[in-house]
Amino acid sequence: MGRIFYMMGKSSTGKDTIFKEVMKQKDLNLKNMVLYTTRPIREKEENGKAYYFVDDAEADRLQEQGKVIEMRAYHTMHGVWKYFTVDDEHTDLEKNDYLSIGTLESYVKLKQYYGEEKVIPIYIEVEDGNRLERALKRERKPQNRRFEEMCRRFLADSEDFSEENLKSAGITRRFSNDNDRKECIGNVKEFIRSCQREEVGQ
């Protein structure tokens, strides 16, 4: 029986890089749990890789069929873009383990849908001072320069990932990415391996 390893953390914790590195580990045999989105596909993107790209009508149809597990809507200058998780033929927990990445709220909804034993949290943590320094370094690059958005996300993360919310969601184990990214990646890989070994041993 498969499980979903769900990676999350505040902005600038390096979770996207860790996610990509863990997905490269062949012996873990993890499948990527690909989200759906209504935003337009971008140049060099391939449908089914980072996202499944659908229009609003298809998103509504999936909701009506009861297949949408969780959905987030973001108001952009181009309109409302939705990102959501779907229970469809691409996810087979009878055969595969999956790695997914998202928000604490999304993790809670997946856990409610699939059951606590099926969704395993991987919370990436970085001390707030280090996290802010990393965010500033990234936004100082000429192609970024979105300091207002950086500040908004930083403050929103403090609320979204508050200790109260983490406790309520049942998040107890944390993986520090403060000093040594390779060590953090190694710890995450070993944690997943240990969970898989326990499953085999049952």
Structure commentary:
With 202 residues, the protein is an alpha/beta fold. It contains 7 helices and 9 strands. It has helices at residues 15-23, 56-64, 104-114, 128-139, 147-160, 163-169, 181-201; strands spanning 4-9, 30-32, 35-37, 51-53, 68-76, 79-86, 97-101, 119-125, 174-176. The strands form 2 sheets. A 5-stranded parallel beta sheet has the order 2-7-1-8-9. Strands 4-3-6-5 form a 4-stranded mixed beta sheet. The longest helix is centred in the C-terminal third of the chain and has 21 residues, at 181-201. It is globular and about 45 Å long. The mean pLDDT is 91.
Low-pLDDT residue spans: none
Helical fraction: 40-55%
CA-based gyration radius = 17 Å
Which strand order does the major sheet show?
2-7-1-8-9
Tell me the total number of β-strands. Answer: 9
| Mean pLDDT across all amino acids | 91
> If helices are DSSP runs of H or I spanning 4 or more residues, what is the number of helices?
7
Please provide the ordered H/E string of secondary-structure elements: EHEEEHEEEHEHHHEH
Major sheet, described briefly?
A: 5 strands, parallel
Structural class: alpha/beta
Approximately what portion of the residues adopt beta-strand conformation?
Answer: 15-25%
Features of the shown structure:
5-stranded parallel beta sheet; single chain; 202 residues; 9 strands; 23% strand; alpha/beta; 4-stranded mixed beta sheet; globular
Fold blueprint:
Elements lengths: L3 E6 L5 H9 L6 E3 L2 E3 L13 E3 L2 H9 L3 E9 L2 E8 L10 E5 L2 H11 L4 E7 L2 H12 L7 H14 L2 H7 L4 E3 L4 H21 L1
Parallel strand pairs: 1-7, 1-8, 2-7, 3-4, 8-9
Antiparallel strand pairs: 3-6, 5-6
